[in-house]
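Dear colleague,

Thank you for sharing your sequence with our group. We've completed the structure prediction you requested, and as agreed, I am returning the results in plain text so they can be pasted directly into your records. Please verify that the sequence below matches your submission; if there's any discrepancy, let me know and we will rerun it promptly.
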Amino acid sequence: MTSELASPPASLPRCDAQQIETRVRNCPRLPSLGSVNSALRELLNADQRYTSQIAEIIRRDPSLTARLLRLVNSVYFGFTTPINSIEEAVFFLGVRQIRQLAMMTPIIEDFQKLAGRVPFEWREFWQHCIGTAILTREVTSAFEVPSDESDYVAGLVHDVGKIVMASAFPEHFAAIQLCHKETLRDLTEIEMEVLGVDHSELGALYLSSHRLPEMMVDAARFHHRPHAAPRHARVIAAVQIADLLIRHAHIGNSGDQREVTSEGWVNASGWAILCNQRSGPEKAIAEASLLRSLERLASILDGLV
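Please find the predicted structure tokens below.
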């Protein structure tokens, strides 16, 4: 949904720590973050001979089915004849992308419910979140072989604090977005001035209050400063770089309108963490690979959101 932000109230008091904690605690829980369908995960960890069984489980989820068929028929794949069969879609997409779709679909639907009717360019925001998730996996893969999907999920939920802010503090959220749009000042500084907490800390508080894994909590809290993260620094560094690349390419809308230059992401602390002890040619290969992935991403997201 896209609409203009309402003008903020003339006087909007900052919230203290107790008010913030109470409102965050009262935010609806996101059931999808607690677990992923175990039967589907088991099937998706199996090899391709289980395509028919995977397709049968996907059929039980109309939303996942719709996303799957939209993605496989998107411009990115360029088929001349539309694919209407789930079995064919699973074959062309492969197990990895199906697994990511299966996790992403319920989480984004829960995000939409949490955001409610607060005016904002939410479709573009979901594109930012999903794009960051996909690219976080690409960033990780450029340096090492991922062991599970935790980096992807960390990328998907990194900006959950903005959704929580819209849900729990809608007037403050509107005032912050309006001020940022007019001044292009640092978004987190405006959040601190207007609300008393920034979206990174708000997201971490929310995920922690619902007992989510520490990697998700840390990704939300430190995605702008992975060098300060006490643990999971490489995953959080991948999230930071993915976030900056998505903004650099103007894919979706994170709510942060400041320009990210080509130098902005390669000079970020996360890139230094990821490239630690890597040679110049290795860095150049990783950079070129990520830019190629970025070129394909816009069409993929059009098929998803």
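Summary note from our side: The chain has 18 helices and no strands.

Kind regards,
the structure core
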